[in-house]
User: Fold this.
Amino acid sequence: MIRKLSIFFGILALAACGDIKVEIDTDDDGDAEVSIGDDKQAIEKSLPARGPGAIIAATTKEHWVSADPDNTLYIDIPQGRIVVLLTPDLAQGHVDQVKKLAREEYYDGLNFYRVIEGFVAQGGDASDEGAAKPIKTAATSLPAEFDEPIPESLDFTPLGNIDGYAQEAGYINGFPAGLNRKENKVWLAHCSGAFAFGRNNERDSASTEFYIALQPQRYLDRNLTVFGRVIWGMEHVQSITRGAPGNGGVIAEKARWTPISSIRVAADLPEGDRLPLEWLDTSTDIFRELIDARRNRPEEFFYFRPNYLDLCQLALPVRLTPGPTSEDEAE
Assistant:
């Protein structure tokens, strides 16, 4: 009976996520085989009216949010500028820490020294502990903020289907995130471009070393603190020299390290030196339409539609702020 109830309630949970076709066969011993698949006809009937490209093209300036200079980092390396958006909602201890480090110019002259193909690019001070670069105003260690209680005013846009790493997955102010209402916990996800602090085995040992995820690393969710994401210049991150396998990704030859010219808070630079970036507001109806169009692509090219969207497969649309149009000038 317990087994049958488990199957039944499992099917109910999946069915709640969308149109699901379920077949149950029982063999001579009474063992059940459950076959779960999408109802293709139902999917075809409910296809979005337009694809992702058409949705983005239909946006107006009201659908876009300008990057807040006080929550934007510029990481300058020889390949170019990397722009990191910091979360205004979660992990504020880590956000404050990296701003202090940037403002005391801690990272200037340091390096990306540990870079693992398909994993992360880690930057900071690779010196032995006794020779480490001194910290002036920032903390020497931070309380972990792997997850935290769900704020009452949190603007969460759900993904709308099951997720293997969270009770619910979705987007918070441009950031992919996980949420568990039963535990009253929320956290940012390790998708490509996630910006986080590294740590030792001790929970509260993060301090200065940061990393950028080169690919999704969702198994790290709730084990390290994500508090930002790369929104511009990810191609520069991907071009950073990799370390050799078997050495933990640490690049043995210092000459092959990628130097960090500087890390700055955008608000501390003259306005003319900032990149005028904006991102698609993830709380809007048009973003929800984009989610549906990525879950089941309506274009004729697609013959198979999975009725599923992975959290990390919907890249946040980001653009340079368009110049004023003749209509804007007339207003």
About this structure: The helical segments are 2-15, 40-45, 52-57, 92-103, 234-238, 285-295, 326-330. The longest helix spans residues 2-15. The two ends are 70 Å apart (CA to CA).
